[in-house]
Design brief:
LEA_SMP_dom, globular, 225 residues, repeat, Late embryogenesis abundant protein SMP subgroup, LEA_SMP
Length: 225
């Protein structure tokens, strides 16, 4: 085989920022083999297998390409992945179970699994301390949250709850870019890097900036009424 026929090596490694919506130092890090192995192990612990087209599969493909290009070597681990971990977490919220995948503290994958209405209603009632007969809807709960806890910094559980509400209202498990759920997730990611609560993004900041928030709540309310 002549040199012209030989496949050319890629000029740049596949970085986290190339395949995931991450920011900061992690975005510029090449995806390493052990990062992918850790995500595969985490997905297997939670799901019993790796997710088709999920974060582990994407990371494995990227790590393989990076090895072939000579940018990483077997056994290499990204420092942020080693320091902050590669994890898969599940959060039960009214109406859904949200599974979120993290590398170095940043979200690289998310799955929303709708739950049966009866189970959702029970969880919802327990969450607000009410009996099933007087359980309020997710839409009302979110609206009440703005009034009573609007100054609370947004965390991952808040983002998961808002995502579940949006999923139930829209009838799809796709989080719309630029929507309330996407904004809440971005705020939670940002807040995870901030130490002082006064400098963090609050719930009222996320929800109040959306001009159609009332309409969204109305849609959610109709779904769960």
């Amino acid at each position: 085989m002549s040199q012209e026929d030989q496949p050319k090596r890629p000029q740049e490694p596949v970085k986290y920022g190339d395949v995931f919506e991450v920011s900061g130092e992690l975005a510029d890090k090449p995806i390493a083999p052990e990062d992918a192995n850790m995500m595969q192990a985490a997905e297997t612990r939670v799901f019993g297998h790796t997710q088709k087209g999920g974060a582990a599969a994407v990371m494995q493909s990227a790590a393989t390409a990076n090895k072939r290009g000579g940018f990483v070597h077997p056994g290499d681990t990204t420092d942020l992945a080693a320091e902050r971990g590669v994890t898969v977490a599940q959060t039960d919220v009214p109406g859904a179970r949200v599974t979120t995948e993290f590398v170095g503290g940043q979200v690289v994958g998310q799955y929303v699994e709708p739950r049966p209405v009866a189970t959702a209603a029970t969880t919802e009632a327990e969450a607000v301390g009410l009996s099933l007969q007087s359980a309020i809807t997710i839409g009302e709960a979110l609206e009440a949250t703005v009034q009573t806890a609007g100054n609370k910094p947004v965390d991952q559980s808040d983002a998961a709850a808002i995502q579940a509400a949006e999923v139930r209202a829209s009838g799809t498990n796709v989080i719309a870019p630029g929507g309330i759920a996407a904004s809440a997730q971005s705020a939670a990611n940002h807040n995870a890097t901030i130490d002082r609560d006064e400098d963090k993004i609050k719930l009222i900041d996320v929800l109040a900036v959306k001009p159609h928030f009332k309409k969204t709540l109305s849609n959610v309310l109709n779904v769960f009424a």
